[in-house]
Write a structure and sequence with these properties.
Layout: H1 2-20, H2 30-47, H3 54-71, E1 78-82, E2 89-92, E3 96-100, H4 104-107, H5 110-125, H6 130-146, H7 149-157, H8 161-167, H9 174-181, H10 187-203, H11 210-222, H12 229-233, H13 238-246, H14 248-257
Parallel strand pairs: 1-3
Antiparallel strand pairs: 2-3
Helix pairs in contact: 3-5, 5-10, 5-11, 6-9, 8-9, 10-14, 11-13
The structure holds zinc ion (ZN).
């Protein structure tokens, strides 16, 4: 009993300390964010059904490998193809990627897949959402000390389908997962990821003209409605397509320097 009281006192002090220090809070380091990201990714891997479509898997493997290299980032890269009808793809901080089988037929070409993966990788290399993840990790730590309920409560905050599916895991990385899967990047972040992603795909050897076409295929699939996962977190608009066409000469200059050129790659069947 005495020991419990002591523990409670220490925890209380820790909480008070944590709360009182929030204005000048020491944000988690990149290594800490990446560690939370890895935990969330491992939960996804444990729960998700990994696709056994060999042709698609090989395509995702080679595109991911080329985009990762083109990014110039020294992440501990990992990627999976998840068997799931959601039209979705993402890259967590630290280079943990996933592509959902639902997005593959809509993309139609390997080059379009390179555009999507380039865009997602750019969010990670540009450290978009870092502050949000920091807050989530911090909040989760405090919540865990208070009673664990805060973690389970995370599920109710989820709005997107992926978030609902995956944070029901009740895992240690729930706070991070909510922040990641309910992500809505700012318009500025989206523009930056579009721009950088197009450069990545060009450097990786894919025709950068395919980037603008992705949005048309996505919109056509939805009949113009943003009902799917990737579309709901990545609002499409004419400005983005226009931007991608405006940046094309710059991306084409990068493409011309690519040691191997794959064009739009293979068709996705
Ligand atoms: Zn995005």
């Amino acid at each position: 009993m005495k020991f419990k009281s002591l523990v409670f006192l220490l925890l209380s002090l820790f909480i008070i300390q944590s709360c009182s220090s929030i204005p000048g809070v020491k944000e988690p380091s990149e290594a800490e964010i990446n560690a939370e990201s890895l935990k969330a990714y491992n939960e996804v891997k444990a729960k998700a059904k990994i696709s056994n479509n060999r042709e698609w898997k090989e395509m995702v493997d080679r595109v991911a490998r080329r985009i990762a290299k083109a990014s110039g980032e020294n992440f501990d890269w990992e990627w999976i193809l998840i068997e799931d009808p959601q039209v979705n793809a993402w890259c967590m901080p630290g280079g943990k990627m996933a592509v959902y089988t639902g997005i593959m037929p809509i993309l139609k070409t390997e080059g379009a897949l390179a555009a999507v993966m380039g865009h997602e990788v750019a969010h990670a290399t540009k450290r978009h959402g870092k502050q949000r993840y920091s807050r989530a990790i911090k909040g989760n730590l405090i919540g865990a000390v208070v009673g664990g309920a805060a973690i389970a409560g995370g599920q109710f905050l989820c709005k997107t389908q992926t978030c609902k599916t995956l944070t029901g895991l009740g895992g240690a990385a729930a706070g991070f997962a909510v922040a990641f899967f309910d992500r809505k990047f700012s318009r500025g972040d989206e523009t930056e990821a579009d721009h950088e992603g197009q450069v990545f795909m060009a450097r990786a050897g894919y025709d950068p003209a395919e980037a603008a076409v992705v949005w048309e295929r996505m919109a056509a699939n939805n009949g113009g409605k943003a009902s799917d996962e990737w579309m709901s977190t990545h609002p499409s608009d004419k400005t983005r397509m226009k931007n991608l066409r405006t940046w094309l000469p710059q991306a084409e200059a990068v493409y011309s320097q690519a040691p191997v050129k794959y064009g739009i790659g293979e068709n996705i069947r």
